[in-house]
């Protein structure tokens, strides 16, 4: 779902009753710089929108069954980012226990669930905990369609077919993000790299890096750079090499900027 938050009339009454029964007052607010998010999901209008998505997905799956297409159709369901944290009023949802939300490279902004229904390939109810990225969808669909992979086009993307078959690669992959822009959530330009359980985030505007161990600290609250300088420097160097290899553009000062103009 996305803003603007507009109640789904068919389902909102149920969630209004549920909120009244569960909560005595407003939720606490978490801040990430000037961005704010909720500490619990307590908005009936937002919940009703999620229910609308659920109803719509159900209608699509039923149509596939009715058209006799269900057995040869692969369905991917995922989100492009975490729930929004905003300046002023807190965002419409919560990403806890993950930190922050949309626009940030903390886990609350980039770690999303992915559901895949692939008849004859996936085992219903199976779970894969390996991190993947949306760039993987293109090579995955190529392989599922029996077409050759095209690494010159899907670059960092890798086929997820081995994961769907329950045979995840033994070698863990390194994931990188480059987001050299400002965002309304108060994120400032930066980048991140994840290698196994280790994750480093770089903030260009402040010339700062943060290091976390996601296995021990999925909420990214215990910054470990000072106690693990070798790992911090290693990941920062690897991130830089990745950026150079891809020709990633870096933010630069605007020489024509005039404060107050």
Total number of strands: 9
The helix content, as a percent range, equals: 25-40%
User: Order of helices and strands, N to C?
Assistant: HEEHEEHEHHHEEEEH
Number of contiguous helices: 7
Categorize the overall geometry: globular
Strand content: 15-25%
Lateral strand order in the biggest sheet: 6-7-8-9
Measured between the Cα atoms of the first and last residue, the distance is 37 Å
Mean pLDDT: 91
Secondary-structure-derived class: alpha+beta
Provide the number of structural domains. 2
Largest sheet: 4 strands, antiparallel
**Could you tell me the radius of gyration in angstroms?**
21 Å
Low-confidence stretches: none
Question: Would you kindly provide a written description of the structure presented here, covering whatever features stand out?
Answer:
- The protein has 261 residues and is an alpha+beta fold.
- It has two domains: 1-67 and 75-112, no CATH class; 173-250, Arylsulfatase, C-terminal domain (2-Layer Sandwich).
- 29% of the residues lie in helices and 16% in strands.
- The chain has seven helices and nine strands.
- It has helices at residues 9-22, 44-66, 107-110, 137-144, 151-154, 161-164, 229-246; strands at 29-32, 35-38, 75-78, 86-87, 114-117, 174-179, 190-195, 198-203, 208-213.
- The strands form three sheets. A four-stranded antiparallel beta sheet has the order 6-7-8-9, covered by helices on one side. A three-stranded antiparallel beta sheet has the order 1-2-4, with no helix packed on it. Strands 3-5 form a two-stranded antiparallel ribbon.
- Helix 1 packs across helix 2.
- The longest helix is centred in the N-terminal third of the chain and has 23 residues, at 44-66.
- The chain is globular.
- The two termini are 37 Å apart.
């Amino acid at each position: 779902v996305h803003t603007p938050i507009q109640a789904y009339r068919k389902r909102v009454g149920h969630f209004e009753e549920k909120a009244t029964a569960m909560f005595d007052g407003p939720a606490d607010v978490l801040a990430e710089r000037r961005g704010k998010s909720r500490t619990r999901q307590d908005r009936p209008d937002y919940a009703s929108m999620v229910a609308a998505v659920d109803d719509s997905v159900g209608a699509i799956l039923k149509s596939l069954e009715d058209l006799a297409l269900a057995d040869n159709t692969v369905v991917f369901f995922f989100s492009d980012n975490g729930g929004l944290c905003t300046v002023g009023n807190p965002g419409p949802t919560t990403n806890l226990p993950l930190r922050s939300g949309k626009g940030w490279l903390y886990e609350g902004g980039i770690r999303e669930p992915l559901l895949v229904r692939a008849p004859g390939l996936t085992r219903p109810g199976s779970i894969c905990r390996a991190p993947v990225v949306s760039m993987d969808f293109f090579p995955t669909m190529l392989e599922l369609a029996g077409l050759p992979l095209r690494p010159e086009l899907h670059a960092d993307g890798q086929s997820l077919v081995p994961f769907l078959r329950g045979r995840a690669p033994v070698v863990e992959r390194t994931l990188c993000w480059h987001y050299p822009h400002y965002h309304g959530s108060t994120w400032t330009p930066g980048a991140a790299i994840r290698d196994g359980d280790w994750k480093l985030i770089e903030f260009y505007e402040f010339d700062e890096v943060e290091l976390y161990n996601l296995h021990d600290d999925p909420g990214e609250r215990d910054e470990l750079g000072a106690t693990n300088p070798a790992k911090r420097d290693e990941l920062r160097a690897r991130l830089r090499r990745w950026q150079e290899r891809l020709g990633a553009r870096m933010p630069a000062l605007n020489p024509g900027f005039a404060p107050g103009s």
